[in-house]
Write a structure and sequence with these properties.
The protein is mainly beta. It contains 1 helix and 25 strands. Strands 1, 13, 14, 17, 18, 19, 20, 21, 22 and 23 form a 10-stranded antiparallel sheet that branches. A 7-stranded antiparallel sheet has the order 2-3-4-11-6-9-12, with no helix packed on it. The structure holds manganese (II) ion. Manganese (II) ion binds next to β5 and β10.
C-alpha cells in the first residue's frame, strides 16, 4: 500500500464569472492538464446576494459534464432539453453536455451564506458528441456514511465500502465525496494508483498524506501524487472537504470558455454552429 502525498497546493482565486458572480476558482484553464480528467472547480460562497444574484444566464456547453453541488442556498436552472427545476441545499446536478446544451443557472437569494461548487469533468473524444444527459439528484438520495475512524462521508459518486453514490454510469469513472471530520478523526480511502485525486478544504483544516504534513486551511486545494491510498486527518480542528478522484483521459484539450473539445478545429466548428443556430444536435422534440 502506497500512501499518496501532496504534490501541489492551490489557493482558490477570487474570480468574476457569468453575468457578474463573485466566486472562488479553485483550479481552471491555466492548470490544465494537471487535474485531468477534471477541468475546473468553482466554489460559490457569499452571504451577500449582490455577489451572486446576477447568475449565469443562457450559455452553451459542449464536450464536458458540469457537476453542481449545493451546500446552502438554491439555484434555478433551465436548459434546451426542457429540464427545469431548482437545485437546493444538498442536491447535486450532474449534467452531461455532450454534443451541446444551452442552459441557465440562476441563484436565489438565501438566508446566510450561499455555498456550493461546480466541477467540470472532461469527456473523452469518444463521448464528446453524445446525446446530452441530465441528472438531478436530491439531497435525500445521497448516502451519508460514518466510518470506524469517525469520518462522515456523503457519497455523491463512487464507492465507499458497500455504499455506492447515486451518480452512477458515469462516462469517466470518478469519486465525489463530501467529508466531515471532527477533531481527532481521520479518513483513509483506497483507489486506483493512476487516478487523479484532489482534496479541497472549505471549512477548518486537515492534514493530507503523511500525518507529519502541514495542515491545509480552508480555501486551499491539494493535488495528491501517485499511490493507492489517501489519508486525511484532522488533528487540530474539525474539517470539511471535498475529495474527488477520476481516471485521466490523456487526450489533447482544446478549450474555449464553456466548450471543451480535442482540437482547435472542433472548437471553431462549435462556435460557428452556435452563432449559426445549428449548435443543438439533440434538442428536445
Ligand atoms: Mn453552465
Amino acid at each position: 500500500m502506497q500512501d499518496r502525498t501532496v504534490t501541489r497546493v492551490f489557493d482558490a482565486q477570487p474570480t468574476m464569472e457569468g453575468a457578474g458572480v463573485r466566486l472562488k476558482r479553485v483550479f481552471g484553464f491555466h492548470d490544465r492538464p494537471l487535474l485531468d480528467p477534471f477541468l475546473l472547480l468553482d466554489h460559490f460562497g457569499s452571504a451577500n446576494p449582490q455577489d451572486y444574484m446576477a447568475g449565469f444566464p443562457w450559455h452553451p456547453h459542449r464536450g464536458i459534464e458540469t457537476v453542481t453541488y449545493m451546500l446552502n442556498g438554491s439555484v434555478e436552472h433551465g436548459d434546451s432539453m426542457g429540464n427545469k427545476g431548482v437545485i437546493r441545499s444538498g442536491d447535486v446536478q450532474w449534467m452531461t453536455a455532450g454534443s451541446g446544451i444551452v442552459h441557465q443557472e440562476m441563484p436565489h437569494a438565501c438566508e446566510g451564506a450561499m455555498q456550493g461548487f461546480q466541477l467540470w469533468v472532461n469527456l473523452p473524444a469518444s463521448h464528446k458528441m453524445m446525446a446530452p444527459r441530465y441528472r438531478g439528484i436530491e439531497a435525500s438520495q445521497v448516502p451519508a456514511v460514518t466510518t470506524p475512524q469517525g469520518a462522515h462521508v456523503k457519497v455523491v459518486a463512487g464507492r465507499l465500502g458497500e455504499i455506492t453514490g447515486p451518480a452512477t454510469e458515469l462516462i469517466v469513472p470518478c469519486t465525489y465525496f463530501d467529508v466531515h471530520l471532527d477533531r481527532g478523526a481521520s479518513f483513509a480511502y483506497e483507489l486506483p494508483a493512476n487516478d487523479t485525486v484532489f482534496g479541497y478544504v472549505f471549512e477548518g483544516e486537515a492534514v493530507f498524506g503523511s500525518t507529519s504534513g502541514k495542515p491545509v486551511e480552508a480555501g486551499r486545494m491539494v493535488l495528491l501524487g501517485h499511490g493507492d491510498r489517501v489519508n486525511v486527518a484532522a488533528p487540530h480542528d474539525p474539517v470539511d472537504f471535498l475529495l474527488i478522484s477520476g481516471r485521466p483521459l490523456n487526450e489533447p484539450i482544446a478549450w474555449g470558455g464553456p466548450i471543451v473539445m480535442n482540437t482547435q478545429e472542433e472548437l471553431a466548428t462549435a462556435f460557428e454552429e452556435y452563432r449559426g443556430g445549428t449548435f443543438l444536435k439533440h434538442a428536445r422534440h
